[in-house]
# Entry
Amino acid sequence: MGSDSSQVQHWMTQNPYTCHKEDSLADARDLMAEHRCRRLPVVDDNGHLTGIVSFGDLRQAAPSSVTTLSLFEINYFWAKLPVSDAMTADPVTVAPDSSIDIACRLMLDYSIGGLPVVVERKVVGIFTTTDVLRFIVEQST
# Structure
């Protein structure tokens, strides 16, 4: 690889799945399950980043496993609550030309597992701990 292979853009997932803050928690959960991802950037109608929701955020927003709610009530809860109730607004981001070192430092400093990659507030990718591991393995071979 070229000298710039240590930039986020070479390791990120391009054009990640996204959701809107008005989407239900059930829709976000289903999208994550269908595409086997653990976080979704939350965008507005112009594709501008407004937040991020992770699988962990959804778990925290869910009713406790010792709840007295029925399965019907739990499903109703998931279908009615919007992503905005569980998302992190204004998440930490990186640019495509940011170095892997900077991205890793941000992930460590903020104890997060992924960063939306943005250009002029538009989501162009997502960089996660899995991408960091791929980078490390590639560099060591």
In short: The mean pLDDT is 89. The first helix runs from residue 25 to 35. The beta strands are 13-14, 39-43, 49-54, 88-89, 114-119, 122-128.
